[in-house]
Amino acid sequence: MSSSKRSTVIVEQLRKQQMLEALSRGKRLDGRDFESYRNFEIEVGIIDKASGSAKVKLGNTEVIAGVKVETGEPFEGLENKGALIMSAEVLPTASAHVEPGPPDEDAIELSRVVDRGVRESEMLDLDKLVLIPGKIVYTVFVDCSIINTDGNLLDATSYAVVAALLTSKFPIYEIKDEQVVDTGKTMPPPITTMPISITAVRIGESVLLDPTTEEEACMDARITMTTQSDGNIVAVQKGFTGPFSVNQIVQFSEIARIKGEEMRSKIKELN
Amino acid sequence: MSSSKRSTVIVEQLRKQQMLEALSRGKRLDGRDFESYRNFEIEVGIIDKASGSAKVKLGNTEVIAGVKVETGEPFEGLENKGALIMSAEVLPTASAHVEPGPPDEDAIELSRVVDRGVRESEMLDLDKLVLIPGKIVYTVFVDCSIINTDGNLLDATSYAVVAALLTSKFPIYEIKDEQVVDTGKTMPPPITTMPISITAVRIGESVLLDPTTEEEACMDARITMTTQSDGNIVAVQKGFTGPFSVNQIVQFSEIARIKGEEMRSKIKELN
Amino acid sequence: MSSSKRSTVIVEQLRKQQMLEALSRGKRLDGRDFESYRNFEIEVGIIDKASGSAKVKLGNTEVIAGVKVETGEPFEGLENKGALIMSAEVLPTASAHVEPGPPDEDAIELSRVVDRGVRESEMLDLDKLVLIPGKIVYTVFVDCSIINTDGNLLDATSYAVVAALLTSKFPIYEIKDEQVVDTGKTMPPPITTMPISITAVRIGESVLLDPTTEEEACMDARITMTTQSDGNIVAVQKGFTGPFSVNQIVQFSEIARIKGEEMRSKIKELN
Amino acid sequence: MKELALMDENGKRSDGRGIDELRSIKITVGVVKNADGSAYIEFGKNKIIVAVYGPREVHPKHMALPDRCVLRCRYHMSPFSTDTRKNPAPSRREVEISKVMRESLEPSLILSDYPRAVIDVFVEVLQADGGSRCAGINAASVALADAGINMRDLVSACAAGRLSENIVLDINDLEDKEGDADMPVAYLPNLEQVTLLQLDGKITTAQFSECLEKAISGCKLVYEIQKEALMKKYFGNEMELKEEA
Amino acid sequence: MKELALMDENGKRSDGRGIDELRSIKITVGVVKNADGSAYIEFGKNKIIVAVYGPREVHPKHMALPDRCVLRCRYHMSPFSTDTRKNPAPSRREVEISKVMRESLEPSLILSDYPRAVIDVFVEVLQADGGSRCAGINAASVALADAGINMRDLVSACAAGRLSENIVLDINDLEDKEGDADMPVAYLPNLEQVTLLQLDGKITTAQFSECLEKAISGCKLVYEIQKEALMKKYFGNEMELKEEA
Amino acid sequence: MKELALMDENGKRSDGRGIDELRSIKITVGVVKNADGSAYIEFGKNKIIVAVYGPREVHPKHMALPDRCVLRCRYHMSPFSTDTRKNPAPSRREVEISKVMRESLEPSLILSDYPRAVIDVFVEVLQADGGSRCAGINAASVALADAGINMRDLVSACAAGRLSENIVLDINDLEDKEGDADMPVAYLPNLEQVTLLQLDGKITTAQFSECLEKAISGCKLVYEIQKEALMKKYFGNEMELKEEA
Predict the structure, then answer these.
(1) Mutate to test the interface with E, among C56, C63, C93 (most CBs of E within 10 A)
(2) Tens-place pLDDT, residues D118-169
(3) Is the pLDDT at B193 greater than 80, yes or no?
(4) 3-state secondary structure of A119
């Protein structure tokens, strides 16, 4: 059951007023302008035991994504496609407010929205990950561990997943006598496009990209939009309890496309 | 672990006294005599996606049963029979006192007693629901959602299950090359009899059929008896923390048979 | 998540002082000297439905172990070995401080340390419990129910497991037409050695074998060492929050070997 | 090939509707006797029942908020609601929908009027078709009104989507699975605010705006049906009198 | 064919018993050292241990009842108790039996004597045969007496059932599985009240009464064994003295 | 055959190390921004991050201890940390390691300095090699120091083990699986006390002492690396100045 929450960080009235005042002057508390992302680092291949991995730092937010490739049965209704399974855990290391345990609704929403971007863009060509149609397919696990939180988990996780997949080496499996054999060789994954999410929050009338924890604590509403390499939109998620006007959404969709293209180039470069 | 409960509805002393007084004059608070059931409606076929379904209203108690038919492995020890699986959930819609979550002991008892009536009467001839003996059989799920509670969930659920099964159309599966194939055709289920449960509560020395929530809040003990079409008894369950005398039980067994026959005719008519 | 505990039994300061005083005079509260075990009884074959069983009483500590033998798939990475699965439950009967529910960290540690002694000593020759290499093997469940606790659950459970395995009769399974068939005959299990654990606690500078609940409530640290028939050590586990000196550990290792041999003879006799 | 199935040469969709046509919608208010407010909706083949309990005391008490009411929402599918039997344990999908549903309803409610209390919204999908979250929001908002909760506006929800080159209103199950994009939207018609927005599928920026506008036009149609259902319950007799007059 | 297996031409049952014969029953009182009361029962092949803790403080405190004692009961099967290994997690069957067992014991106890407290009854089935719930109730009632809980009467339990045309006493495992009906009953012998009654199988109304009477006659036999077990613990020496005298 | 793989004729191990050689170890302090203390360790192929939160208030409050601080510890493996994907739910192995890890850290801390508070130690294994519990303890102790918790000593941990006739230091993954015994040890170097000791495998009493001594010698080597890492964080500039001078 979903329930209204106390703010995860108690925002002192003073601090919130300060923020609104700064925003009214077009400035954020950390000095960025509304459409700037924080510093951004990606390191790939950090987990040798994974088929692919990436660590993303977005300001102080830090996420690791790892890709594991196994074989298994296809999903019901998707018998001729490889299986893609994503999860995200906000580790209790990540902030003083995380309890260890199974993922809560925020972590579930997080992994489902990231999943949607990858799945709907068909970033991975799952048709190419079938060994025996209807029976044995590649199973691709993408698991994310959030190590430190400072806002905008969604984009940080999304970039880590994309970078980990892009730089993966998938094991090549073969079927011999109806048995799966790991050939010991690897191949690049069948990548078709690069989905990039862009997230903004609305605080009063201001719409800010890449919010920090402090900004999320003051937010009225959140929106995430994922575009693929050709600029088409593949996933949108409005979050939190406040509304957006149609105008705000349409304007944001343009920003998300442009900014997405910018981030896409950066991630390509970093790899 | 089973634990004594607070009464689910706090009965004011006054109201309970009022009830005992009325009962001493042979009358119930809603005007019924002791052996009368409340108004009773059944609607069948309400869920197109189910193989069978029924909604029962018994006074203000409202239950939906849905039948789903799939194929699967038989149960251990019952290799040559179809598998019948029942569940019941008291939805949180049903009253201010229900918490969402996995079924508690009351819901488990409910579904197990309803199940016992269907299973012991052999209402469904499970011998006829085998595809490959010992390997693949029909799996019949009967799931019940209780939407509103006003007492006597057991009978309402039991009638919903019987009506849903009676009016089901089972898919016809065939085995081709050791694989299950859905032929797209349907058949009536192999029905042999109609189990009907009758429930009473004892309040002081009075034994009342078809109790309301208010009456259950005052009850000392509960008893349910299920008979099949030929009048034989197939399941009995005493419930709650008070005892019955042998005499009360034997008298009730006669009432359950007669009243069961009456309800059986009503349900047949309604279909 | 593992958490510091309140003492399970609240030790009155007086009682603890009394214990330290007695220990300083080389005596325990129940009169034993430091290296003595309590009275010790084993009864085997008490559960007819199990392939093997044993009840151990060690003072007032009472444990039942039961062995069940089935067939199943081997563990990943151990394709050519039978599967051995151990569990232990401290029943809520066992003391006023046990809550019913899934095993807590103490019960998990208990069963894992007992398991380690059996597994590392290769007491059961799992290579001999294979039916179709890589596909079907014997699965040996050893489940322990702790009925009453008075300290040193670890040794009591360990002895119960050893006695139950030693006196088991395993069903003989055969493969016919790729199907498992129970021949109805039995065989003795493939036993190679007898692992025996010895447990001590340190209270102040005293190291006592076979502690009671009262002594465990005063302990600074605990250590368990398991030796096999040839005197070699196969498992060690330091427990609780206090440290040991290297000297204490080395001295204890000698005691565990000698005492282990003594207990081994006793268990052999009893069978 | 795919497009042929979803839209014929006359612009008719697989279920016979035109591009801008809603499925048939029927809302009944006050269907769960014990609840403080309730509604039943049939939206295409969706059959959904919503019960509202509250405002009432929060248990456990430390969940209460000093300055406003807690809103809780459960979206749940009955095991018989789907083509293949659904396991009754809550899926990750149900957890996410419960969350976005709660968030889409919250802006419509004046929660500061009920400090330290809780309002529970239980959404039970008896039969699921495409768009069950929108249908559920529509029924939930009516049920909240039926419970007499102070509101700024009703929440009306409807999806639009893309079938090949066409942006169409109110995606059904088949169109959701076989179509190119699905965008559920919830809207406060008087306040002109969007409280739910999701998308999966592929769509250009231009189509995105068109799709959003279309979904909102659908919300406005739904709004009328919601109001009518409430009128019927509360002024049913008067309405009949007027019709007679 | 089936009847032949369960009853021979001389009216002997598969385990050699006559129609009205109980399996062998052995009850020992005070077997769990730490418990406030305890009992061990062998009832046919059933081997069951029961420990009672309480009356004691309730945790969490809000579970307490102001006017009487809470009774809690857990029926649990050890993994090695059954033919095939039992998963240790509680099954739906164990949940139901815990409930009917608690309800069958509650009328025998004067719970108003211990307001705000709790009594816990833990029933562990070490080996299961037909009739484990009856055997468990018998041991539990003795363990409650051993714990010194104020009681109106002991609860005695026994099943009867139908094997073809015969109503027989105390159904065993094979008879439960292959027989035609099984009816476990718990009874307060002095108060003449039935506190547990279940049935599964097929039976006429006439056979139902006969079966109930037979089960109660079994309860009365069990009652004597329960009393004897308690006497042996509490007056063991005196009894021996008398025998010697 | 087995020995050949684990140790060659020149006394070199499968990864090229000698008998008394540690794998390469790298510790970085203060890597998790939000934590009160943190450390990252690479120990062979182990990659482990530890965050410490506290001393802070306990929730729920009844968990608090009146005379000292509660220490909590979670050892957890990321799903991608192992050769085959690890299910994220905590395994029995993780539960045991969380426990022995907590117990190995507790003697180093002056918990009586923080009555009624809690300290949480979260150990996340990003990549697992043999000896992850030792590596985790080393990082955890440094993270506790980084959090400014009052300590008697650092805890240093290292395993030794037996490969055929040789007792070797710091068992790696392959040696753990194929070797003959593995003994993880944690040690307070200044207080000369053992706070973790486990063993699995086969070993004589004589080898046991040798193995224990060898593990402790490893702990002492690790201790220097731990201190250096802390120095680098807290006196990094001074150290560089000295080097320059």
Answers:
(1) C93
(2) 999 999 999 999 999 999 999 999 999 999 999 999 999 999 999 999 999 9
(3) yes
(4) helix
Beta strands in F132-239 (DSSP E): 156-163, 166-169, 181-188, 193-203
Where chain E has pLDDT below 50, the residues are 1-3
Question: Looking at the domain that runs over F2-236, which CATH code has it been given?
Answer: 3.30.230.70
CB contact under 8 Å between A148 and F33, yes or no, is yes
Residue D222 has pLDDT above 50, yes or no: yes
- Chain B residues in contact with E71 by the CB 8 A cut-off are 3-4
For residue C60, pLDDT beyond 90: yes
Residues of chain F with pLDDT under 50: 1-3
CA-closest candidate to residue B114, choices B139, B95, B87: B87
Q: Which of D74, D85, D89 sits opposite B141 (nearest CB)?
A: D85
What CATH number matches the domain at C13-268, 3.40.228.10, 3.40.50.720, 3.30.230.70, 3.30.70.20? 3.30.230.70
Name which of B194, B234, B241, B258 to mutate to probe chain E: the one with the most chain E Cβ atoms within 10 A of its Cβ: B241
F212: exposed, middle or buried (Cβ count in 10 Å: 0-12, 13-18, 19+): buried
Q: Chains C, D in contact: 3+ Cβ pairs under 8 A?
A: no
Task: Give the SS3 label for residue B213.
Answer: helix
Strand partners, C203: C206
Partners of D13 in the beta sheet? D7
What's residue E1's pLDDT?
37
C162 close contact with E: CB closer than 8 A: no
Q: Which of E45, E53, E88 sits opposite C48 (nearest CB)?
A: E45
For residue E241, what is the DSSP state? H
Q: CB of B220 within 8 A of CB of B250?
A: no
* Chains in contact with F, where contact requires at least 3 CB pairs less than 8 Å apart: A, C
What ipTM does the predicted assembly reach? 0.95
Which whole-number Å values give the CA distances from B22 to B30, B200, B201, E97, in the listed order? 10, 17, 15, 35
Question: Residue A212 in contact with residue A30, Cβ under 8 Å?
Answer: yes
Q: Do E88 and C53 lie within an 8 Å CB cutoff?
A: no
pTM for the full predicted model: 0.95
Cross-chain Cβ contact D200/A2 below 8 Å: no
CB C208 within 8 A of CB C201: yes
How many Å apart are CA B204 and CA F158, to the nearest integer? 73
Note whether B249 contacts E: Cβ–Cβ < 8 A. yes
Q: Distance between CA atoms of F186 and F204, rounded to whole angstroms?
A: 21
Name every chain D residue with its beta carbon within 8 A of the beta carbon of A199: none
Strands A52-58 and E193-203: unpaired
Closest CB to E127 among C47, C70, C96: C47
- Once rounded to an integer, what is the mean pLDDT over residues A223-238? 98
The yes-or-no reply on E/C contact (3 CB pairs or more, < 8 Å) is yes
Residue E21 Ramachandran class (φ > 0 left, ψ -120 to 50 alpha, else beta): beta
Distance CA F55, CA B138 (A): 59
E159 within 8 A of E171, measured Cβ to Cβ:
yes
- CA angle, corner F117, sides to C106 and F123, nearest 5? 55
What pLDDT, in 10s, does the model give residues A10-59?
A: 566 778 888 999 999 999 999 999 999 999 999 999 999 999 999 999 99
Q: How many CA atoms lie within 13 A of A8 on its CB side?
A: 18
Query: Looking at the predicted structure, is the pLDDT value of residue D245 above 70?
Result: no
Question: Which of D85, D87, D102, D119 is the best substitution to test chain B (most B C-beta atoms within 10 A)?
Answer: D85
| Banded model confidence at residue D2, pLDDT cuts 50, 70, 90 | very low
Residue pLDDT, tens place only, A116-145: 999 999 999 999 999 999 999 999 999 999
> For chain D, which residues make up each domain, given as ranges?
2-236
